[in-house]
Amino acid sequence: MQSKTSFFNMALFKKNISRTWIAGLLYFVLLLLMLPVYFVISTANINGDDWYSRLGYTMEMRLFEHMSTMPTTFITIIISIIVTGITFWYLFNRRDSYMMHSFPVTRRSLFFTGILSSLTVSLVPVILASVIMTIAAAARGCDGLSCIWYWALVVAVSTLLFTAVAIFSLMISGQIVTGIIFYFIFNFLYLMMDIAFRLTASILMWGLSEAMNGIQYRIWTPVLYIPNNAKVFSDVVMDDNYERVIEFKHSFTGGHVLAIYAAAALVIIIVSYQLYRFKKLETVLDFIAVPFMKPVFSVGMSFFISMVAGAFISGMVEALTSLTYDMKYGIAIVSALILGAIIYFATQMLIEKTLRVFCAKKAFACAVYSLAALGVLLCMRLDVLGIENRVPALKDIQWAGIDNNYTMVFTDEMDIEAFRQIHQNFLTDKKELRNINYNYPDVDGKTFSIRYKLKNGKIVIRSYPVINTEASVVTPEYLAATQPILDFVNNPGRIKEHIIGNIWNDCEIKTMDFATLVDVPENNDYYFEYNEFDELSTKEKKAKYKRVYEAFLKDIEAGKVFQQDFAGYDYKYDENNKVRLYNSFDFIVRNPDVVYFSDSETFYDNAYSGQTIMHEQSIYAELTVDCTNTLKALKDEGFYTDEDDIITYDEFSKKYENYGYDSEAIDPEAIDAERAEYIFEDPDGDLDPLEAIMN
Amino acid sequence: MIQVNNVTKKFGDFIALDDLNMHVEKGAIYGLVGPNGAGKSTIIRHLCGVYKQDAGQVLIDGQPVYENQAIKSRYAVIPDDIFFFTQANTLDMMKFYKNMYPNFDEALFKKIMDCFPAINPKKMVRSLSKGMQKQVAFMLSIAARPELMILDEPVDGLDPVMRRQIWSLIMSDVAENGLTVLVSSHNLRELEDVCDHVGIMNNGKILIERSLDELQTSITKIQIAFEGEMPKLPDDITVLKKITNGRVHTLIVKGEPRAAEQAIGQMNPLLMDVLPLTLEEIFIYELGGENYAVKDIIF
After folding, report:
1. Does residue A18 sit at the B interface (CB-CB below 8 Å)?
2. B288 located within any domain
3. A140-175: per-residue pLDDT in tens?
4. What is the CATH number of the domain that holds B73?
5. Which of B99, B148, B151 to mutate to test the interface with A (most CBs of A within 10 A)?
6. A409 and A378 in one domain?
7. What DSSP designation does A579 have?
8. Element (H, E) at A325
9. Helical packing angle, B130-143 and B106-115, nearest 10°
10. Distance (Å) from the alpha carbon of A281 to chain B's nearest alpha carbon
């Protein structure tokens, strides 16, 4: 009997299922292995005496941990396009397409029956695997079985969304391969556009060379957004010694995200249906089957590829020779326009399946596009959006940070405002500053970074190339723009607060090490020695460490340690080596009652900052001969006894350069002479061991 | 049954159908002939509801065809390149057709199957030869009990015995049930045997659309010989082609054959034979007037 409803046709449904069930079966087997089989195996030997049980793990925790690590979108993005592609395969073959549309069935039936059968094949395995997983978990005595079904819900919504995107992609193309390519383009479109703009900005715009670091997965890229924002969350918190579970946090996150995606999927399905309704079947095998998508594709591809390629070309030229900011932009713009025109006509050839695409109409379209591309690049050059000049408002900033020789993050409002002002002044002189590579090609320098974490969760990242402020050629204007930054970070109070840390003034020194070198001339060797003070009690040791620490703070006050500059690594290398001590010095500051605020973790690892609770921190300091307070305290407290124990890098290299660790110090002639002697002494000994091996 | 009114279809800049008109009476067997690229398959795809015309109307029983499930369930289509589902055997396809066509007659299908003993119904249709696939398509289409069959090169690839068998099945359906058939083919001799109406297409237009009898009597071949030179023919005789071989002249005359015969008879020829033209000859002579390239090759 023919189905009564025109949305669904049972005969088509059965036929679709008969062609896709094998994909569904393989999917089911995969899920079966990942969910119940793996869980049952991993919990097979629990007897109350296994490692997890001793830690205090319950079966519920193990179930949540298991389900929280199960993939969601990474499988569904693949299975959706496979099943939908097979179901709508007839659209990409003239014979199949003509015959299917000759049958007494409407496009509405073909479309919705196709969607329904695709979803059936994609979702039934998920449901079955979840049922079996529920039974397996219940049999293991797990509580919290609902996490299995929340995972299933996330997978189901992902499947619905990706199926919708798949059908949309297939509707706009006349070729299955192109349809699949479009599918992945659409799924990653926002991210790709983001990367293209950031990449271009990182090469062309001043201060944005780290723009690629600011990429965050947005809602427009569900394949990456869903795993982070809609999931079974599980966090088993251990004690400080990782010996006992002290807390089990678990929840189901992102319900609203799933609702948004489900609604979006329905909208995409409706749009896709409209495309199918009006799809001209003579476009089968066309690269793009929908007229309005042809210019979008052509211009989109030309614009993004040429923009990025143009920026790369200017970057490459800059790597070969010094360029002014304007020269760099000029090269980028010219390259982008030439490449854009080439790509534009290449895409036209793809779309129209002919090489004869050069005509006045297309040349005009290309000229319009080129003007638009030129406009965008000029907007970047003129900083129309104010990106280069942007310094966030104080009220929007959660913290501000700088990374140069050391990393500092300011959370105090006064510090943030002072830092903002310095940054603002720095930007005022950008005309002078952004051409330093061209104006001072022979002056060494480095790049420092600035980050603002905003209260809305966004991060503003800037990085600026700078040159050594001590160089003789540096202008007073340049010095006026850059020196305040160094003065700000070299302030002793900030050094203590941000390099030692927030507990610097209220801490115990848990350990302290000062290395002295012990020479072993008979072996041409040396080793480091540390005074452990084993004869002292812990309290006595800590008191000793504290006294050295106090002296160390005095050296900080005196500006002898943790000083930052904009000089390159090689600047005054030999002179510095004469004062830098080879003896290593480090200690651990600790306060069990105060959470340690790590500036570097906050600055770089925003996703996890605040999740790791620390009460202590290791501090490594490079001492110089000028750190008189610390050195004296170290000697007074017995970390070293003889002045000869103090050795600079320069002294070290002179003293130990012949100890065989420096390959440049090995004389090849001496080795040959030694080998000749070996052979001479043992004429029957044939070859030496090395040559024997080589032969 | 079929009305195609002023239909135009463009593929880009190419005009595939140019203000085309075509009419097929109920119960007729209509042969659609034309050179390659004339637009035969394009108009058939419009009739099947695959293509949508840019302008004009495509009606079956007075109703538009495009996206009209009710109308489409009343006719069956056998395209030149037949589609069967992957992995499906004849019985699977029968079940599919049964679900698709409300009038599908399973008993009739089984009866027809007996006429095609070489086909193993449990064998995958796509693994059968092209001729056998055609046979399966006919079995399914006839069993669907359609009111109209649209056939595009239907017996291409079939052996002579099977061709006759298929045509006999169709003819009996026409006779018993008033089936209407629209058939497009290059095999004009075969169409001549089965069609009662013919439409000749070229460049996206129907040039001629008449009953076969009418068509065959509208063009005549007259062979004549005179003692001396052939006298001038009367102005009311339209000669499409004239070939002279010695004293024998062969004339292809357009118009009423009896009138031409009478007029030429009055010129006292030594010899005069009036011969009917085959459909193939009519096709060639008609299209010759349309500057069809075959003209120069034949003569």
Report:
1. yes
2. yes
3. 889 999 999 999 999 999 999 999 999 999 999 999
4. 3.40.50.300
5. B99
6. no
7. T
8. helix A325-352
9. 150
10. 6
